[in-house]
Amino acid sequence: MTIPGSEARLYGDLARWWPLISPIEGYEGDAGIVTEMFALAEHPVREVLELGSGGGHTAYHLRSRYALTLVDLSREMLAVSRGLVPDAEHLRGDMRDLRLGRTFDAVLVHDAIDYMTTADDLSAALRTAYAHCRPGGVAAFFPDHVAETFEPVTDCGGGDADDGSGARYLEWSLPTEPGATTVRTEYTFTLREADGTVRSVHETHVTGLFAVADWQRLLGEAGFHVSTVRESGGHDRTMFIGHRPPA
Ligand SMILES: C[S@@+](CC[C@H](N)C(=O)[O-])C[C@H]1O[C@@H](n2cnc3c(N)ncnc32)[C@H](O)[C@@H]1O
């Protein structure tokens, strides 16, 4: 069965395993890049909105610099995040239609943007970011892939907790057809409870895959001036900064 991000067990009944499946240390580097991007705003950045903030792993590394408002669709992921970043405001919402009626100095959409699988959904999320970004502010977007550089990957990882529980994952993304706008990734999670009970869960995630030109066009249509940031040195990742013009 094909599962969009909003229904993934990983972000639902398996959410409590998130800290072991995707350890928080892996987010420190990206938090540093976020900070550099936010420094490009016209005003000092203090108030930050993160859309699709998940278990709060990126937010954890940003919490001492910024006042954070964290939004996610998953109640379970918000609960994990509340435990990790208790000082942040946590709200349940969909990045495609959230309207808080206020603006922030900067907006972040980290890897959760991958769950926008159509141009309409991606456009809706970019417009949400614009609606919450103050004039002169910036919004940073971190897709895992863009169409030009996508390579299928097989990866594994995980970790252990002090109570004896542990989790490991296998991630296996499949090659895409030319012109495809989505990537299919098979995940297998092997989960060991503290009492030694072990079970495995498989699910398929479908994520978006858009060309750089599509990103730039949709960001422009949302109202942003666009900077495209290419990370080299192994990652080969492309990120985007939307600058909301000053009033
Ligand atoms: C890979 S996790 C994000 C992890 C996060 N970067 C962290 O630091 O822990 C993806 C998240 O996107 C959320 N998500 C998926 N679709 C969403 C939507 N339409 N609006 C808000 N959140 C969404 C999921 O609930 C999930 O928590």
What's the arrangement of secondary structure elements?
Blueprint: E1 2-3, H1 18-21, H2 28-38, E2 47-51, H3 57-62, E3 67-72, H4 75-84, E4 89-92, E5 104-109, H5 119-131, E6 133-141, E7 154-160, E8 166-173, E9 182-192, E10 198-208, H6 212-222, E11 225-231, E12 237-243
Parallel strand pairs: 1-10, 2-3, 2-5, 3-4, 5-6
Antiparallel strand pairs: 6-12, 7-8, 8-9, 9-10, 11-12
This protein binds S-adenosylmethionine (SAM).
Please provide a written account of the structure:
The chain is α/β, with parallel strands linked by helices and 247 residues long. Helix content is 22%, strand content 34%. Helix 5 packs across helix 6. It is globular, with a radius of gyration of 18 Å. The termini are far apart. The structure holds S-adenosylmethionine (SAM). The site of S-adenosylmethionine has 23 residues, from helix 3.
Please describe the structure with a list of short key phrases separated by commas or semicolons.
alpha/beta, 22% helix, 12 strands, seven-stranded mixed β-sheet, 247 residues, binds S-adenosylmethionine
Gist?
With about 250 residues, the protein is of the alpha/beta class. It is built from six helices and twelve strands.
* Strand-pairing-aware structural class: alpha/beta
Question: Helix share of residues?
Answer: 10-25%
Principal-axis shape: globular
Quaternary structure state of the chains depicted: single chain
Order of helices and strands: EHHEHEHEEHEEEEEHEE
Please report the number of helical segments. 6
What's the N-to-C terminus distance?
Answer: 47 Å
Biggest sheet character: 7 strands, mixed
β-strand number: 12
Q: Please state the CA-atom Rg, rounded to the nearest Å.
A: 18 Å
Low-confidence stretches: none
Proportion of residues in β-strands: 25-35%
Order of strands, main sheet, comes to 4-3-2-5-6-12-11
- Kindly state the mean pLDDT as a whole number? 95
Named once each, the bound ligands are:
S-adenosylmethionine
